[in-house]
Task: structure prediction
Amino acid sequence: MPTEPISSNQVEADSSTVTQQQWKWSALAGMASYLDAGSIVALGAGMTLFQKTFRMTDGMVGFLAAIGPNAIGCALGAFLGGWLGDKLGRKKIYQYDLLVYAAGILCIAFAMNKGMLFLGTFVVGLAVGADVPTSLALVGEFAPAKARGKLLGFTQVAWCLGPAIVLWLALALAKMELLGIRIVFLHLFVVAIVTWALRRGLAESARWVAASSIAKQNIAALFSGANLRALLWTITIYLFWNLAAGTAGAFNSYLISKNIPADDPNNQAIGVGLPSAAFVTMMIITVLVFMRFSDRSHKTRKWLWAIGSITQIFAYVLLIVMPFSIPVIIANIVLFAGGAALAGEAFYKVFSQELFPTMLRGTAQGFSFGAARIAVGIWSFFVPAIFSHGGLPVLASLLTVFLVISGAVGFFFMPNTSGKTLELIESERAGT
Result:
């Protein structure tokens, strides 16, 4: 694999065709999403078993979810990794952070007490948080102007595949209980090491090399003018969407298991098997709809967002008006996942690359990504208590409000960046 960066002129020579190398680089960068979502769902799949084995209270369960890859640990890693990726280059971050991730995964897999479990969860969060904004900036910077949504959507396929495989493994190993969950985490360790080895041949971003040679990073510029407006917009749509998505990812297995009799021999199998439908659905919609249409026009993007937002809202309204049952929770899972493919993390990834200049791209995404994960971390601490005291309808009502906010702000204030080069977008937003 070549070690020289792809020229931005070569990238823009054909603004719609994706080369084999670009697909390959996107796949390797997208493995950050596989490992991010995979670790979140693995923790969720094992939550009930960890709680039982280590005699954890509901408060401890909430704290575990709050410090890991779904929340605060990831947020801290994103803040640091995004900033360092802009300052030192994408390559210096994405080459080594997966080794830290692998160490944290081993700590969880072999946890003998609460201390090891909590430490490993926090370390995994830090590592994956540093990787996501850096690797996605790389994809955004080498992607053709009219295929940026396609390639960033491709990384979202990895985000779906990770949790699906995790849940299928957990389902297959359900009778082994905690040992099965340990094996699931060891699978993530193997994937991280293989990805780290393959990434060693990746090149630095040509756009970052060019930008860093003529300008220094100016963090203050992120908090004024068009950059500040873009930052507030991306934080709002992602934060409120992620409160719902994070709850689903970290707690679906937990909530399903809590609604099934504890003495049911299929309790764990149902709890980890049903949520896998979400990621299969999201993967299918991402490939067939998002990757195909997200680069077509501004109007198309708004229609995709509107359809996705309404579908997700309806998914949680079902849990408000109907009593818990397996058919109802399946409908919620499938509808939310299908809507999220069109109005969720995939579009957030696209706009996070398009709306910021090169020397602030990683920092901006690290900031918005981190802010959303901190919010999820704080929220996660209270989810078990909200569910225990108010029941599923109260929790679903709050999630519905969050989705309405994300959907409305995303639709009515969506910027027009479809099909434009990053340089053209930057000049337009700077008014030059």
Observations:
- The chain has a mean pLDDT of 88.
- The first helix runs from residue 8 to 13.
